[in-house]
Design brief:
Blueprint: H1 2-10, H2 12-65, H3 69-85, H4 90-100, H5 105-112, H6 116-130, H7 135-143
Length: 151
């Protein structure tokens, strides 16, 4: 049996048959390679489309749920007008702006290079002039008009 296999390998027809199958094998490898390239390219294109659609969705959501630049400017002007009506000093306006941004008294003191006690005194004056009881009331005063009506 072993000798028959050796004889088969040494026959001239076998080398032709083997060359023919190698050629078919190379064609299959080439076709599989082309298919792989096509698959990768189509997946890359699909991912690009999904990414673009996601970007457009995020952009649309931003426009729907956020105030426009013009609205933000108008809102800020109204806040500053209210600060003037309450007769805030320049320092009180700066601190009140920090409060509206959600900064703590410690953070405000650090930003302004003052002591925590100084900021606490100034925030107390801010609340007193505005008639608010504290930070939450102060922030809510400005945020409530932006919220939808409750049922």
């Amino acid at each position: 049996m072993f000798l028959e296999g050796v004889e088969l390998l040494t026959e001239p027809d076998f080398s032709l048959t083997l060359a023919k199958y190698v050629e078919y094998f190379e064609i299959w490898i080439g076709l599989l390679t082309l298919f792989g390239i096509y698959f990768i390219a189509s997946e890359a294109k699909r991912f690009q489309i999904e990414i673009q659609e996601s970007r457009e969705l995020v952009q649309n959501l931003r426009h729907q749920f956020l105030l426009s630049s013009k609205d933000r400017e108008q809102f800020w002007k109204e806040i500053l007008n209210q600060f003037h009506r309450w007769k805030y000093t320049k320092t009180e306006m700066e601190i009140a702006s920090c409060l509206l941004r959600g900064l703590s008294n410690q953070q405000i003191a650090s930003i302004r290079n003052t002591s925590l006690r100084t900021v606490e005194t100034q925030t107390s004056a801010i609340y007193q002039k505005s008639g608010m009881r504290g930070k939450l009331d102060f922030i809510a005063y400005f945020i409530m008009p932006l919220l939808p009506e409750e049922d």
